[in-house]
Amino acid sequence: MRPLLLLVSMLLLAGCARVMDADQARLCRAVAPALHEDDTVIKESALAPLPGSQTSLRLAYTARRYGVTRPHWIICTFGGTSGVDRFDLVAVETDRGTLSDIKLAIMKRWWLPDAVAMQAEAPFRLDGRSAYWLQQAMNGLSLAGIYGLVAVSFALVYGLVGRINLAFGEIAVAGGVNMLIVTGIASGSGRLGGPALILALAAGVAAAALWSWAIGRWVVLPLTARSRSPQPVLIGTIALAIVLGELIRITARQRENWLPPLMNLPVPIAGGAEFTATVTPAQMLTAGLGFSAASFVLGLLAFTSFGRGWRAYADDPLMAALIGVPIPRLLAGTFLLSGATAGLAGTMVVLSYGTIEAGAGIGIALKALICCLIGGIGSIPGAFLGAILLAGIETLWSATFNIVYRDVVIYSLLVAVLVLRPARSSLPPREI
């Protein structure tokens, strides 16, 4: 009964997160430059769903011209939450008034096709339906990388000590937040370039690794040694996730919480007059980081002494200790590696969406846990394959049905996996 109550509590917390359609966000971002002169510098401040509306996004930004910077906002309203209606911009409200039907029609006809899709420059010709599904596949690659890396974090720790650390979602958020802090410092001292961005990404990964090591050293391992039941670790890491989320939320007002616009210019892939599939350099970088990091972890476990020690301890902890595997160093390395992969996932969220919200870690952790359960918890390749499947389901639902109910379906899948495949989620704990 207690595990079920824990699951219900986590689902309720995850339900507090807002859902934002990435395609609609790209369209709304393209509207702001059309409202100002060509030499105006637009800098995004915040983009989020409009409270109380399922089809509207609110974009806050600053416009700088002739050395004067002024704050502005717009509200973009779309024709629906599923299918091609997601791309139909039906109204634009600004801080200076609502855009007239004529101005909106001109913008949709002459500005948005060039600013967002660049349809005439698409190198490959595809019919509108095929291009639409290609676009969804490209959107799903980034999600697969993010969920896959957090799922790998779960699998690394569970495969070694037989416990689930539900704080990995907030550890990922902490990695993204530290990246934003470093980019904010770099932006304040000068132009944000490639070296500064790499430094910020490394800082996010390192911070998440240290958080994971500390949680493993002072929470997961002591609770595992004290009790054969997995419940103390579950409860303890849920509490830590809430603490981390609140800490990030409280300190959010004291710093810049948005990545400066980088690598967000859409590049056309294929399409035609009806629809053109595009991808941004940020999306390509995110997908590349995710799949490269997963390949690195697999190679590390397959071809290094650390990997041999990890596999030996996962098979038989006592025998691994008897043959000389350095257990304390192995455990510390595993927590550092799992935290680094989760932190990289958090930085990937920032690269893809420009920010990461406090409290978003609960939803990330639960979705990564679904990936692990689908692929076999404790299996690194299975975790990533489960992430690809889950990202496909999520993208397919967003493209076909009402996006508002997407997370309802995903979390229902978690319940179904737990009920139908209990052997995957209740393996016997390991002795330390």
- CATH C-level class of the largest domain is Mainly Alpha
CATH architecture of the largest domain: Orthogonal Bundle
Radius of gyration: 23 Å
End-to-end CA span:
27 Å
Strand numbers in spatial order across the main sheet: 1-2-3-4-5
Count of helix runs: 15
Percentage of β-strand residues: 5-15%
Give the % helix: 55-70%
Provide a concise account of the structure shown.
This protein is an alpha+beta fold and 432 residues long.
Description:
The protein has 432 residues and is of the alpha+beta class. It has two domains: 22-117; 131-425, ABC transporter involved in vitamin B12 uptake, BtuC (Orthogonal Bundle), CATH 1.10.3470. 64% of the residues lie in helices and 11% in strands. It has helices spanning 2-14, 22-34, 101-117, 128-161, 168-189, 194-226, 231-251, 281-303, 305-315, 317-322, 327-353, 360-375, 380-400, 406-420, 422-425, and strands spanning 41-49, 56-65, 68-78, 89-94, 97-98, 124-125, 267-271, 276-279. The strands form two sheets. The protein has a five-stranded antiparallel β-sheet, covered by helices on one side. A three-stranded mixed β-sheet has the order 6-7-8. Helix 4 runs parallel beside helix 8 (281-303), helix 6 (194-226) runs antiparallel to helix 7 and helix 9 crosses helix 11 (327-353). The longest helix is centred in the middle third of the chain and has 34 residues, at 128-161. The chain starts with a helix and ends in a 7-residue tail after the last helix. Residues 424-432 have low confidence and may be disordered.
